[in-house]
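Encoded backbone
================
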Amino acid sequence: MNKLLSFVLAASASALLATAPAHAQDTSYKSLTDQAAATYKEAKAVCDAQSGNAKKVCTEEAKVARAKAESDAVAQHRNTPRELAKVRKDVANAEYELAKARCGDRTGADKTSCMTDAKARQRAALADASTGAAAGTNVAQNPAPATRENCDAMDAAEKAACVTRNAAGTTKNVVADTVITTKIKADLVKDDELKAMDVHVETVNGVVMLSGVVPSPAQVQKAADLARSVEGVTDVKNGLKVK
């Protein structure tokens, strides 16, 4: 995530923590959605200072954060199948728009593959949203244990985003994806052949996407093998290129 955007989101989260009551579950639905809107407005202002595809990616990241915050608010306070399905679909569609934006700087077959993967993830997420609602999933009556990330060991940008996720009470999927990404990045740094390479790591629902450039095909394969070895990874989309 864009560093400046991460810091804006984190600052907003810190303000929320400072004013929130002792038990976050008592926060009203309106308070949660108002906070989501305010955070989005601040994040959007940061994005407006950028240009080109970087601005589009930044804006879509802010929209995803807002959609997830609103989904959490519905799960806590308006937990009906119809409303749950709607907000889950909103999140799926927002994540799809973000994925498309991240494909924007790619070209040729690489871009086509990126867009195809994004569409496949969207379809799966939309199907899951409908299935969960049809099954009458009731988060309020069967809450998942609260899971918080340990942000202490992360770098500044990752830590800011981590604090924001913890404050917003995001889903276990997001937490798990972030843990996977952080672990892969840490393993890359530990590897003598890969630590200096320009490897970007992103994880969505357990699927790891690698991009960037490395000097040799052997390092392309090694990075993919390293990613696959991390617990929780369900698939690796290797978009690394050789210089």
